[in-house]
Records
---
Amino acid sequence: MLTLQLINENPEAVIERLAVKCFDGREPIMRVVELDKQRRAAQKERDDNAAKLNKMAAQIGGLMKQGQREEAEAVKAQVAALKNTNKEIDERLKATEDEITDILLSIPNVPYEGVPAGRTAEDNVVEKEGGPMPNLGEDALPHWELAKKYNLIDFDLGVKITGAGFPVYIGKGARLQRALIQFFLDEASDAGYVEVEPPYVVNEDSGRGTGQLPDKEGQMYHATLDNFYLIPTAEVPVTNMYRDVILANDELPKKNCAYSACFRREAGSYGKDVRGLNRLHQFDKVEIVRIEKPEDSYAALEEMKDHVQGLLEKLGLPWHILRLCGGDMSFTSAITFDFEVWSAAQQRWLEVSSVSNFETYQTNRLKCRYRGEDKKTRLCHSLNGSALALPRIVAALLENNQTPEGIRVPECLQKYTGFSIID
């Protein structure tokens, strides 16, 4: 969430930047400013009263030593009254602080200055593109038909076992999944990311720490008996490893990668856009997460983008990078770059990664800080990215690499799959 310091320093600038995200922040921002004034006034009154109580305690001791019992009792009565006043102030302070927190949780992150204005995906900006565009014949099959032809994925069986959006991978389809996961993890390890294996369920504090709660309750599977949530991405448990932590200056940066299954309730629309692997409720993904000093986070963002680009180049997929406009960005992000790959049979771009810098928005919720060389504690910056999400990668690989002899497997995966063609 936004810091009070950021809001108080220039509330009009915050309101102006929030408008880039198509969010009208005037009312909540000005309410926070007013409540914070009330909070600080109440805190000052509380501190002044505490100082008075200390003096009164010393005064009572002196009067008792001098035998002035009546005067001491009169001061004791004043102490009791002042303590009651402080109790009322504490209640007022708590109510004010709770209201401030509730409002701050409802305000999205301020977009970075490089974020373009816009409302929808149509306003996103293509920054860069590359990779060979396949030239398939008119008889090219979409991945869901290829999956059936080569017995790689059974969508109907997944519906039987669970429901729509939960496919069953079979034989070489399952092997391809495992190969991609291992390839992505090995590449992340080579890039200096420390692998972790996190839980797939998190508590409320973890969901709140990374911004899934209270913004995305409806998109998360909720185990109500234990009040746990199935993770929508490994970002949630991995970033929460640093909740309530003060890192030493020389411990940064922190670079982690993790494979996990991901669970999302989002229903989406009907038709080709969600057919096959295009939109699932359960899917596999390798995530990279970084905790950085503020002055280093945008250089880290560029490194992460280069890492994802390198994966797509090794897979031989046509790709482009989008700089998301304000209206198409997530609630928590300061800036986001989406990577999309070209699906030759579907003739459309498929999103396979989002790489984002959250600046202090998550770390303020998490209380993730570091102690600088001057011994002062400051909030870290958090970043994450998909490296990569598997379903649409698999869709593009199957479609783009189909030949009359079968489906070619990219060379970088063959040592993991043990085969070079699916036939």
---
Amino acid sequence: MMNRRQLIAAAAMAGAAALPGIQAAQAKPKTAIPPQKVSAARRVLMQSSSRYHNSGYLDFCDEQYAQLFDEKKLEIVFVPYAKVAGTYEGYEKQVQDAFKRYGHKIVSIHRFADPKKAVREAQAIAVGGGNTWALVTRMYEAGIIEEIRNAVNGGTPYVGWSAGGNVCCPTLRTTNDMPIAEPPSFNTFGFVPFQTNPHFISGGNQGLNNETREDRIEEFLAYNKDEEVIALPEGTALYVTGEHNCEVLGPKDADPLYWFRQAPKGMKLERIALGTKFDLRNVVPGGKL
């Protein structure tokens, strides 16, 4: 995370880039996530959303959760820190009610005196949606970023929807949320080596002269020349197993995913169909699934 002086310098450099003959430096994370040891038993479900069309809360996820939890009934430690306009107790109750149909028990991490120990001893971990900036800030404050990363890479099942799916990336830089909180770092879990954008809707709003989600992602790619972004429409998910295996999940009528790619001019787009299985290492500039 840059301090204020560094932010001012970065803004000045961005302005200078508009002048003839001056080239802005590319953005880089302040501190990269160190290489992680990953178990063959790792299972990570990154969901774009908690609802799909007219569904209820998380009630369209039967097949996705059956895959993730392997039909086992578990006690899941739930992280509600993305909730801002509401209480952790209320959020916990909402998720408890949603998971009853799947046979799992939900206990919010705010009920544990030692959140780090709760993560280490969890049978599974769930991270809910809301504001990603608040979520990441609070996870750093609780000291559980590295704890969750280690537990999940070691084989503890993980599910996150919306903000909870977005933090599976190396950083939170492709979230859709306002930065209402300031985390000590943009770094998140890094379960996948690329960025994602949840709740993706193509195009702008009719009658409004606002920028589109494509515009924002194109800016990200222009400023980060060695990165790629996969956008997840509502209802879709990425299911990661082991170190490099990934599968696209979602309801049968869900839209394919959007892979926004580096190109010599601007960006290019490829679509990734439901059911596609690929190696995570292939989502790089010039890579092929």
---
Amino acid sequence: MTKDQMIYLLIFLVVSMCVIIVLLVRKRRLLPLPMDEMEGHDFEYYCADLLRYNGYEDVEVTKGSGDFGVDILMSKGEVTYAVQCKCYDKPIGVKAVQEVYAGKDYYERMIGVVMTNQYFTQPARELASRLRVILWDRDRLKNLADSVEM
């Protein structure tokens, strides 16, 4: 084998290993978590418990229907929050951001948050940035859950 062939083989092996690592990380990221099996209202209570255990105060789940796009009300120190929870099997779009943005004002809260067991679409991330809505995806929820024993 020539020197050039050895270099090409080495490059091929390094690139192959990188691709394998990326695929394994993506697969691990999408493994089902217990929250993925929950119904909507159960997910709201699960999120409320996560928030309580992570230092949020006055955590209250709103009524199921007619909640004006807000599932949880809470505070931390002087800051008040309105939270929309979405337990879906696909990425979360702009509608959830719009709902919590409107609900935040209805409940006279300072900050709107969308929590989900999934990830957000690019348009949802762009709108949230523009409206100053905080997005907590499955990684953030997993970190909150890992920080406490429930």
---
Amino acid sequence: MNLNKYLAVSPEVQAALDAGKPVVALESTIISHGMPYPKNVETALTVEKIIRENGAVPATIAIIKGKLTVGCTPEQIEYLGKRGLDVPKASRRDLPVLLAKGEDGATTVTTTMIAAAMAGVKVFATGGIGGVHRGAETTMDISADLEELAMTPVMVICAGAKSILDLGLTLEYLETKGVPVIGYRTKELPAFYTAHSGFSVDYRLDTPEEIADAFKVKLDCGLQGGMLVTNPIPDEYSMDADYINENIDAAIRECEEKGIHGKATTPFLLDKIQKLTAGKSLEANIQLVYNNVRLGAEVAKAMCR
């Protein structure tokens, strides 16, 4: 199968992959849907800078004019940031149409994993993953991120599942799908804005080398799917659990009252929580992403060793 028609890997990323150098994949939904312009572009470029400073090559992924682009240029990041919400949020189901029509798309965790796997990138750092939504026992609202983790051989480093979700059911779903959930220096699942959720992860690993070794064994044994590495938000940026949960509950009530559902749910909730917390949640979001990409660079280097 010739992927060149649908996949564009930047010369820098391809050269790094060919030379066996560490590469860290990054999503683009955080650029176009995660925060307003120009904060989104500033954050995306800072993330790339942090990865370079830590000895790896960043590969921001997006759909640009009908191509899965692995390694966006600064100009392409600026383009995505300026277009903002006009760029469709693209999950697995959206890929065939967007690519066929030559359109743009902001990649979610799911589509970033797909493109990374196509290009040969094994490590992907992001903010938080999607999961099982509250009330999913009646709505069946379960993020495609969980299915992708069960299928696609890419390690995802994040600050846990977003605390707008049902974290207990999210862990149960991942267990059913055979996805290892690793806590980096913790046995507790981080809850995105806060380091504490009250739920336990499968394993605690304390070094990037241990994480890289575990993932290498998974690949060597031909075990399907990826691995989820949860990295708690640094203590100085962690929000009080009661405070953030009160605001999450208020945002969910408004979401239900307005009849918002499906893929519009998460962007609405994150925006509402940002407003309710007077921007504190956005700052926490940015800092946890920075923390995750630092770990991503270290793990990618350990895998190359």
